[in-house]
Amino acid sequence: MSPFACPNFQHAVSRRHALKVGGLGLLGLNFPQILNAEAYGTNEKLKARAKSVIFLFQWGGPSHIDMFDMKPDAPEGIRGPHKPIASKADGIQVSEHLPKTAKIMDKVTLIRSMHHTMKNHNSAGYYALTGHAPPSDDQRLRDSLDLFPGYASIVNKLAPLKGDMPTSVSYPYVISDGSVTPGQQASFLGKDNDPLTVLEDPNSPSFSLPELSLPVDIPFERMQARRELQQLIDQQAKLMDISPQARGFDGYYDRAIGMLQSPKLRNAFNLSAEPEKVREAYGRSTYGQSCLLARRLVEAGTKFVTVYFAPSIGGQSTTEGGWDTHGFNNTRMFPIIEKFHLPITEQTLPTLLIDLEERGLLDSTLVVWMGEFGRTPNINKNVSRDHWPMCYTTLLAGGGVKRGFVYGASDKTGSYPAENPVRPDDLAATIYAALGIDPHTELRSAAGRPVLAADGKPVMGIFA
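and the corresponding structure tokens:
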């Protein structure tokens, strides 16, 4: 049996190595150090390749077959209705509906061998947002202190910024599928490590941050006095000891008050300062302006920005929603893909990468474009593709990754990885490694158990 044929192969290796820890501990090595040596072949401090990450999460499951891993020689029911076109990167083809995107493929790395086994949106979404497999593949998965924090919160914990800019920002939605998808907040790291979450529409003419504005009749000094009184009450009530869920609210509140005075933060969110030509280039849509805001935030120093493509997985609309194509019973395939998903991707992704490069920010900013899984290679009787986590594609750009490069490969129908399989655990480790964060840093769970920031190994082969 090949290593890939056993889904738990890499976990099994880690367990075997764990048996050695007791003996090696006598030599002064602990488990994270051992894993670090295995991952990088050295005990030297990890090199930071990126200062910031822009994480563009495509909720609903974009199809690799219809975009970045097309199979024109496969049978008709697999290759789909779209034709491939050549891109600016040798050997990389994309959908005919992405001609602008084709021109920036020389700036990106495609990982075509992503895989896991979670077929439900909430469980797969949690896996994609944290890099940790959920306890079960269950659509009813709910957020709890037993589950892991998202990337933004771990970055906030392990590499916080000093000054008045937030380390991590998430917007413009809290995503869900029936219930809120876990992995968007800090979980057992405490509320003070939650990303700054903004639920305003950046495309709205009245876009602002009211939660960062003081009421007109309350000066900052009075607000600070109120805060001091609240601290006294909290201390007396010992709220942090009584409620684990409340742990961290104190620090979160302090941070929010500090942001009230920050001209730098207010300026970063001031999209009206952008030339009209730039705003139009990104597209006058919520997602388009969210991508523009992401550029402004990393330019101002924010370390991790999460942009959610849509609040829900999608439905039968052709003008809004995530990448799920269930429910379309049409003879013409995937109308939402052709009318909404591909056009908005075609406008935003090339614009963002070109804008970052022209401003000298691409080399220091890792852009990650991905969903929670892909879609089945075969088209079902309802003229759709079903959830398919066994093989899908993630796109990365900037932050030291190779340009015009493909890592891994799928088989001839795009069903399974054919070489260099990559799990979400490995992608998580790769993101942390790009920021210079040791992915095997030890954290403490809600129960006090030692856990690693990421269980996987960085995919070092994608870095230049």
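(Above: one complete record from the training split.) Confidence is low (pLDDT under 50) at residues 1-39, 236-242.
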